[in-house]
Amino acid sequence: QVQLVESGGGLVQAGGSLRLSCVASRKFGVINTMGWYRLAPGKQRELVAAITIVGSTNYADSVKDRFTISRDNAKDTVYLQMNSLKPEDTAVYYCNVDVNHLGRSSMYWGQGTQVTVSS
To answer: Is residue 114 exposed (0-12), middle (13-18) or buried (19+ Cβ within 10 Å)?
Structure first.
């Protein structure tokens, strides 16, 4: 079982920055990919950014050059640095991790943290 605790959301003006954090608590397994998704009203959930255990990253086109994902494997923590925020970045952001235990992969989700960008 893995529990994810997110923090760092809030209200910010357009052009501002926020840093999201997600700490994973686990007893077994290896955390492979860690990522952030977001869900905005009236839209489908979308992948914002992901990072593998070796540090390879993937970003949605809409956030490239503005957001940076990173992780601290010693702390089982993933971060999302969000710069130059836009009103269209407003959404609930969810942390997601893929854990492999005894050859079986399972995905876990955080509770979500609200990010609101005012114009």
So the answer is: exposed
